[in-house]
Write a structure and sequence with these properties.
It contains 20 helices and seven strands. The chain has helices at about 5-10, 35-45, 45-65, 75-80, 80-85, 90-100, 105-115, 130-140, 160-175, 190-210, 215-220, 225-240, 255-265, 275-280, 295-305, 305-315, 320-325, 330-335, 355-370, 370-375; strands at about 20-25, 120-125, 145-150, 245-250, 270-275, 285-290, 345. The relative contact order is 0.15.
Amino acid sequence: MNIKALQKRWTTPLGKGQKRLFITDCEGPISKNDNAYELTEHFIPDGPTFYALISKYDDVQADVVKRPGYKAGDTLKLILPFLRAHGATNKKIRKFSAEHILLVPSAKDTLRFVQSIMSSFIVSTSYEQYTRVLCSLVDFPYENVYCTELNIDKYQIDREEIEKLKQLKEEITKMPMIHIPENASSLDDLSARDQETIRRLDEIFWEEISVMECGRMLKEVNPIGGFEKADAVRDIERKTDGSLFNAMYIGDSITDVQSFRLIRENRGLTVSFNGNSYAIREAEVAVLSDNTLVTSVLADVFNRLGKDYVIKLVEEWSYSALQRYCTPALGSRMFDLYPITLPKVEIITSSNKERLVKESIAFRKTVRGEAVGALG
């Protein structure tokens, strides 16, 4: 198709039922934070070690054992009794979150842009205290956000439980880090040592804490991860009277896997933005970038021309391809920001998938830090 034909298509309105949808995860594609990790680091002694182990346990429960009723992202409820025992309150969580938000460069501009061209939504596992202050910072409507509702002040625990939780925290931080072999499909694929760690964590969470007063948090708090994110995507489709065929989804982690699958089943567009191995293995396009301007470019082409032309752009990813498919203003910004080398944007295939996993994980760590970048 020549430039004149493309330009004509740019100005052709979508027909009935052809409304474009932009849906993005929050932490990773918009901000550099892992708020739950940072809260744990702030409130709990040896918090990084504690959180890293619980996060691996989460990966095992969601992706290996596939525990009934458990979903990727439930780390955010597992850590709550320990946060409460170490003094976390709604006010303190909100204050800490507001003081430590770190946006990916151009995130505010990207969110403003996508809102101007498409119905736009954030679907995040993050606690509401974090997403509320983020929305305020970037001028994004909170009513277009799906996230984890949390009223931690609701849970009053006595001194005996506090001491017990602190003892359990000490025990957990001394456990060896869990290693998940590639393609593990059952606990038998893990080492004997890791199986024992999983067994003990099962006891701690599902036998000991579950019968404590603080165990109500494990039953009542519902993190928006895994299938809950996919349910949110379906709800967006219903509310907007749109179609997932016309949806673009940006994610970066295990909590996005089921949303990626849902969008792909409906032939929408899935993009991993500095994603980990889970995201790369499920998305169609891999973006490795220190700036969200690439997201704006992909959203622009998706909105005007549809998924097929995003794929064409990515397959031809170059300065000349940007001139061919991108609106001039965005193209000029890309040239100004990246005058020598463009960020890596690539179609994910069976032949390049493992390479992209390694490259994306390594790049992810340079953008978000070694500790956060290594999380599932």
